[in-house]
């Protein structure tokens, strides 16, 4: 397993943002990490990326412990944080060079143009990031996450802000990346999960309420769409879709 989350808990002050959660992810099976606003998705992803420490429990990425082996974790992980923080004053290509340098990427120039092509940044590559539209900024974030060709990708809402054409392109890219890599992505777009994810983990109020294959989840809840299943598992008591 390339990602192992084992009884992980994060407490902020009085609040348990995630509460004793466990799940695994493996290469070749894109895992959709779903949950309502505030459920604990970003918190979990930040712990996996070594950005914040957990309160209890363990997690590993590519066989390395996120607490004790964070350098090895970073080498093997591409992470797109929520809100995609970028240096707005940098030019697109300059920012790619900066990140490629940090990772010690070999054949830098060739790899940068390969990733610019893969993420469809070609036409915008000479602009400053601050001058890009939201969708193109999102592409830069994805490009930076994959520049070092990591084994594991954790992408927090990678398609947020994309128009329908861009959505299709980026989904195809993610699908391609997910064939060989371990890919976990969070999204609020159920259609996206249906289109590219094989595994689904749903978290609600810090606790896991579903962990199954997409097909298995549909079979065990005699509901037609993932949206209906999501609502039945996460909506406040008394609300359901009929
Ligand atoms: N630094 C922090 N300090 C205190 N509470 C926090 C902090 N970060 C997150 N939380 C709380 O932890 C809970 C989980 O937040 P998190 O960002 O992980 O949710 P999420 O599932 O990613 O939500 P969204 O879909 O809205 O992005 C929320 O109630 C949030 O307010």
Briefly summarize what is shown.
It is globular and about 50 Å long.
Describe this structure as you would to a colleague:
It is a single chain. The mean pLDDT is 93. Strands 6-7-8-3-9-10 form a six-stranded mixed β-sheet, sandwiched between helices. It has a four-stranded antiparallel β-sheet with strand order 2-1-4-5, covered by helices on one side. The protein is an alpha/beta fold and 242 residues long. It binds adenosine-5'-triphosphate (ATP). The site of adenosine-5'-triphosphate has 12 residues, from strand 2 and helix 1.
Spans with pLDDT under 50 lasting ≥5 residues? none
Q: In percent terms, what proportion of residues is strand?
A: 15-25%
Query: Radius of gyration, rounded?
Result: 18 Å
Helix and strand pattern: EEEHEEHEHHHEHEHEEHH
The main β sheet shows up as: 6 strands, mixed
**Strand count:** 10
Structural class: alpha/beta
**Which ligands accompany this protein?**
adenosine-5'-triphosphate
Q: What's the number of helices?
A: 9
If you average the pLDDT, what whole number results? 93
Q: Which features would summarize this protein structure in a list?
A:
single chain, 242 residues, alpha/beta, 10 strands, globular, binds adenosine-5'-triphosphate
Helix-strand blueprint:
Layout: E1 3-12, E2 15-25, E3 31-34, H1 41-48, E4 56-61, E5 64-65, H2 70-76, E6 77-80, H3 92-102, H4 108-118, H5 134-146, E7 152-156, H6 164-180, E8 182-186, H7 190-196, E9 199-204, E10 207-213, H8 214-220, H9 226-234
Parallel strand pairs: 3-8, 3-9, 6-7, 7-8
Antiparallel strand pairs: 1-2, 1-4, 4-5, 9-10
Helix pairs in contact: 3-4
Bound molecules: adenosine-5'-triphosphate (ATP).
The site of adenosine-5'-triphosphate has 12 residues, from strand 2 and helix 1.
InterPro entries: AAA+_ATPase, ABC_transporter-like_ATP-bd, P-loop_NTPase
Pfam family, one: ABC_tran
GO molecular function: ATP binding
């Amino acid at each position: 397993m390339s990602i192992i989350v084992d009884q992980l808990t994060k407490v902020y002050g009085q609040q348990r943002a995630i509460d004793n959660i466990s799940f695994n992810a493996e290469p070749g099976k894109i895992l959709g990490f779903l949950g309502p606003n505030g459920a604990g998705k970003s918190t979990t992803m930040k712990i996996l990326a070594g950005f914040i420490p957990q309160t209890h429990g363990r997690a590993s990425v590519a066989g390395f412990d996120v607490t004790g082996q964070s350098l090895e974790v970073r080498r093997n992980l591409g992470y797109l944080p929520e809100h995609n923080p970028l240096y707005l004053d940098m030019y697109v290509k300059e920012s790619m060079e900066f990140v490629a340098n940090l990772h010690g990427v070999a054949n830098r120039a060739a790899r940068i143009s390969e990733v610019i092509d893969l993420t469809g940044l070609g036409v915008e590559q000479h602009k400053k990031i601050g001058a890009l539209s939201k969708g193109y900024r999102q592409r830069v974030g994805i490009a930076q996450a994959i520049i070092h060709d990591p084994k594991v990708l954790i992408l927090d809402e990678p398609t947020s802000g994309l128009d329908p054409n861009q959505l299709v392109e980026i989904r195809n890219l993610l699908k391609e990346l997910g064939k060989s890599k371990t890919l976990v992505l969070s999204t609020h777009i159920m259609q996206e999960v249906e289109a590219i994810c094989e595994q689904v983990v749903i978290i609600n109020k810090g606790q896991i309420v579903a962990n199954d294959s997409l097909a298995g989840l549909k079979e065990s809840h005699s509901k037609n769409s993932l949206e209906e299943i999501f609502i039945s598992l996460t909506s406040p008591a008394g609300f359901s879709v009929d």
